[in-house]
Amino acid sequence: MNKDTKKRKVKSVSLETFIFLAILIGGFVYIANIMGAGIMFKVLMNTAHDLLLNTVFLIMSMAVLAGALSSLLSEFGVISLLNKIFAIFMKPLYGMPGASIAGAITTYLSDNPAIIAFAKDKSFTKYLKDYQVPALCNLGTSFGMGLILTTFMISQGSDFVLPAIIGNVGAIIGSIVSVRIMMRFTKKAYNYKKEEVETIQKEKVEDLREIRDGNTFQRALDAMLEGGKNGVELGIAIIPGVLIVCTLVMILTFGPSTDPITGEAIYTGAAYEGIRILPVIGEKLSFILDPLFGFTSPEAIAFPITSLGAVGAAMSLVPQFITDGIVTANDIAVFTAMGMCWSGYLSTHVGMMDALDARHLTGKAIISHTIGGICAGISAHFIFMLLI
User: What is the per-residue pLDDT across 64-76, written as a single tens digit (0 to 9) for each?
Assistant: First the structure.
């Protein structure tokens, strides 16, 4: 992820310039024609401002606490213990070596790109075959921001504790589908043959771990502070995604305000007013969405759509959905599964695959993960129906 984005030179003014201007101006004109130009910009500013104050800082606070916890777990060997316990499941379920569970746990406690650190560690990758390395992208992304997302959902009310747990199970199922499909592509790309015999060194990655200098108290304090600092950086990093993506989704999801006196729909420029396009699309697709995901309101489609670009932005939709009575416990389970499994993969997959030196497989990774996320949502819905 540290590599600079490669750019290429093209003609200064081309057809795409005019297409982009047509789409941009057309979009603004369409929205302004419905709510008025002045109201439109007022809504955009108020929505972004409210998201920054009431959503971003909430997510950041949880990211700081989650970062401190994850750093403590790593410092005192809890993650290594989990690694040893769950290693026996990785080969039959994912077709990956047991050590790869450490990458999944790390991304669950932080975010998608965290697995890149493992992919660049030769003491880790020596246990992976060539075709398994690109699949780390799908594995890590499937659990990105998992702890933060789960904690956020649980914090919305006691009724959402079990749905959030079910969502985690759905995300695991989606991750298996994503990784397995991806490795079908990578095996072909790397000309992998089952009969090839590879020598694996006896020393295992999970046998050793690095710790900080100092006594136990000092190590614990340093781990918490460093983990909390990483949480702050993560909170800062999600600001563009939340403000840009979520503001756009909000304006496409919600409708005008209601006049308290007359009861008429009016535009006042308040935050979260919109033109209700996504609910209309959701209604048109309800014959597919209802049986697959169990969504009770067409507005619910906004969450998985937003998760494609930024799960942090998608999380900010939930409180308003709950306030408006749009979502149910089943929806929270599906949101958790799809949000964790997708976790903004469209905005991270290209960079992650580039960091893994597998840019040529980026399209395959995206296709695999799209299918995996859909399977995660479907699994969460049916597990919820079976249990509840």
Answer: 887 788 778 778 8
Contact between 26 and 201 under an 8 Å Cβ cutoff? The reply is no
171-220, pLDDT tens digit by residue? 999 999 999 999 999 999 988 766 444 444 444 545 667 788 889 999 99
CB-based contacts of 385: which residues, under 8 Å, 6+ apart?
Answer: 294, 330
Give Dmax over CA atoms of the chain in angstroms.
77
Sketch the domain layout of the chain as residue ranges: 25-192+214-387
Euclidean distance between CA atoms 124 and 208, whole angstroms? 11
- The per-residue DSSP string of 303-341 comes to HHHHHTT-HHHHHTTHHHHHHTT---HHHHHHHHHHHHH
Contacts of 338 (CB under 8 A, 6+ apart): 170, 171, 174, 303, 304, 307, 373, 374, 376, 377, 380
Tokens of 298: 């067409």
- Residue 114 CA to residue 148 CA, distance in Å, equals 14
Q: What are phi and psi of 127, to 5 degrees?
A: -95, 0
- pTM score of the predicted model: 0.73
| Positions of the chain with pLDDT under 50 | 1-5, 195-203, 205
